[in-house]
Each structure stands twice: as C-alpha cells, then as structure tokens.
Amino acid sequence: MLAVNGGKPVISEGTVAPWPYVTEEDREAVSNAIDKAVPWHWPMDPVTELEEAWAEFIGMPHVLAANSGTAALHMAISAAGVEPGDEVIVPSDTFLASASCVLQANAIPVFVDTDYETFNIDPAKVAEHITDRTRAIVAVDLNGLPADYAQLREIADRHGLTLIEDAAQSHGAFYQGKPAGALADMSGASLNGSKCLSALGEGGLFATWDADQHRLARRVLMFGEEIPHQGRDYNARIMGWNYRIDVLAAAFTRSQLRRLEHMSQVRQANGAALSKILSDLPGVRPPAVPDDRTHVYFFYPLLVQPEDLEIDDLPVESFRDAVEQAVKAEGLGIMRWQHQPVPAQTLFQEMRGYGRGCPWSCGHARPGHSYDPQRYPVASEICRRRLVLGQSFSSLGPPNDLQTMRAFADVFHKVLVEERDELITLARAQHARQG
Ligand SMILES: *Cc1c(COP(=O)(O)O)cnc(C)c1O
C-alpha cells in the first residue's frame, strides 16, 4: 500500500544525508578563519585563497568572490558593458536571477525558449531574438548540465556579443573537457548553501579571462571604487554595491572546494545509476546527458509522462501532483521547482520594474518589449511536467551513494509499478478536486 494511503514508507528517516556534506576539515577551516579575522580588513586571507583556488580549478585567471550568485551575475553583466536599454538574451526556464541580473543593470532581458532534451537555452532559437541593441547572452547550465557552448560561442562571435555563463548549478561539471565556470567569456556561480559548491549560507563567484572586465566587476563589488594594491581613496567611479563575501563563508567554501572533484564524480555516478533504473519505468522521463558533457545533478529533473500508462482521461497536472504526493509520502524529497517560465512571473507581466516601468519605459530601451508566456511553449511544457529530486532534500551528492540511489529508485518502482492502481486513483481524486 502507498504510504500516502497508510502503507509503510520505502525510505525511513535518516537514510538520505542532507546537502552540503560537512566534514571535520570544514569545521577546522571555519574555526581557523575566526582566529585570523580580527581585526576586520579586506580582503582577508580565506577570501583571496578561495578566489585563487577557484581560478585554478576552472583554469580562468581572474576571479572575485561575492556574497551571492545574483551579485556575481550582476557584476558580469556590468563588466560586459551592458548599459540602460541594452538587451541581453536569457533562457526562459531558469531561476529568476539569471534574468533579473540584467534588470539590475537597467537593461532588458529577452527570453529564448528551451531545448526539451537538455532543459537549456535552445541555440537554434537565439538568433531570431538578436537586435541592434543586443549586447550579451546569458547561458545557464540548468540542473548541473552545461549548455550548448559550441553553438552559443559561434552565435555570440558572429554578432559581437559577450557570452556569460550562469554556473550556479554546475560546479564540477565538464563540457568538451572544459570545466563549468570557464565555458564562456565570463561566469557567475552561486555558493548558496544548496549548491554543488556550498558556502553553507550565501556566496558567489565571478570569473573572467579579461583583466579589464575583472577591474570593472571589482568596482561593482565594492562601492564603485578602484581598489589599488595599497590604500583606498574612497572615491566612487561608478555605481557600485557592497557585494563582498563573508569571511566565514569563504573559508567554508575553500575547504569544500578541495573535495569538489571527488564530490562531482559521486554525483555523476549516482545520477547515471538512478537514470539506468528509472529509464525502464513507465510514467517518468529521466534527464538526458549528451556525450560531450557531464551532469552533476544539482537537480535531478524528471518529466512525468502519464501517456506511458495508456490512461487518456487523466490530465498531466493531476498525474504530476499525485506522483509528487505519493513519492514524498514514501520518504523521498521531491518538488516542482519553477511552476512557470520566468517571463510569466508577475515582474515581467506587469513590467513595473523599479517603478514607473523602468527600465522598459525610461527612454533608453527600444519600445515594444513584452513578455507573452505563449512564446515559450517548450519551457511551459517542461514546467507542466517537471518534478525534481536533488538540491538539499534528496541530494545526489556524497555521502549518498549507489545504495541510496537504489532506495530512490525503489520509491518510483513502488509508486509507478507495484501500486500503480492506487496512484491512478489518487490522480483521479486530484483531478476531481481540481475540477
Ligand atoms: C541559485 C541560482 C542563482 C542565484 O544564486 P544566489 O547565490 O542564490 O544569488 C542564479 N542562477 C541560477 C540558475 C541559480 O540556480
């Protein structure tokens, strides 16, 4: 019997380890940072050490640690020379910050639909959105799978655009042998507690190949000031913010980074093992991984496919909600994540922005921008069918292992195969309730 109907859950409490995976080494690193951080100065050693270690890990020369991924992306947009009214291409299915970083520079996000196989921006649909105002493309390595950089690079070069990687979900992944974070002209990564490289709390990493972009991003990071090698003149050159990372977050992240390579290998192996089992189960589609890249499964996205079960009168939504409810009751964390493409969010539907409709109405933008959700049918379809495992609540990272993945798979086997009749009854009841 399904646990949602009173049966015994497949997974008992304590079986699945939460993310991040904290070791004695991490505790020592934070404790040492406390000892060395008084009095306050900038930058403190753990911050510089984190920046140098990330630069070495991804093989990119210039790195700045920031206090969030959102901040790191805003730094990248500004360092690309994006100005008010300029346009930046962004994917339609992602976390808000991939697009709101553009608004933070008073510029205009232009959304492009998604590829149904990779969940990433569809390179074939980018060119049609490029205008004489376009300055940059933000590609997101969604779920932990790098986007299609060979094609995106070609488009960016052809149109003279800066290519920016949002690597918030993909630390430790590879594309054609190159590490996530170093796949474009610049990158922004998040160190939010849930992410594959975690600060436990909050943090971010900006990276670039270019010394001038590095200087510009650093101004944005610290009050618009030029930070010379010694001393500080307290003279803001441009609009800047305080995006400095907390020293304890930096120390914790630096320590985690020593194990990132290993942790990524565990994630890859766990995801591959789970997909191998789930690909034989009707009712869900496991994520695809093209041959030229690796997946680190920040999220493990599943698309529900009630069509597999040959029940024609059941809406996808009711089936999805029943699967979510049943899987959760079996002790496995699962959720929908984004319910709709980003341009369908109220921010873009109402276009109030900073107030008075800025940046769309401030006079710098081309007139006529609008965000009709129907222009993103693939992203909408993914949002309609998607359920995700992963993140902190059903992590594919260590110490969870192949045995944990078998437990995950057992849940789906019970829900979709052994107790399918109960699941369908549950879905029909959902449907009746929703009308
Ligand atoms: C988490 C995330 C961000 C934002 O990072 P924060 O550190 O939370 O500000 C940006 N883009 C994507 C794709 C993310 O998943």
TrEMBL record:
Instruction: Name the cofactor(s) required for activity, per the record.
Output: pyridoxal 5'-phosphate
Q: What InterPro entries is this protein classified in? A: DegT/StrS_aminotransferase, PyrdxlP-dep_Trfase, PyrdxlP-dep_Trfase_major, PyrdxlP-dep_Trfase_small
Report the transmembrane regions from the record: none
UniProt key word Nucleus:
no
Q: Which Pfam families match?
A: DegT_DnrJ_EryC1
SUPFAM superfamilies attached to this UniProt entry:
PLP-dependent transferases
- Tell me which CDD domains the record gives: AHBA_syn
Q: Which terms in the Gene Ontology molecular function aspect does this entry carry?
A: transaminase activity
Ordered alphabetically, the record's keywords are: Aminotransferase, Pyridoxal phosphate, Transferase
Would you identify the family this protein belongs to, as annotated?
Answer: Belongs to the DegT/DnrJ/EryC1 family.
Q: What is this protein called?
A: DegT/DnrJ/EryC1/StrS family aminotransferase
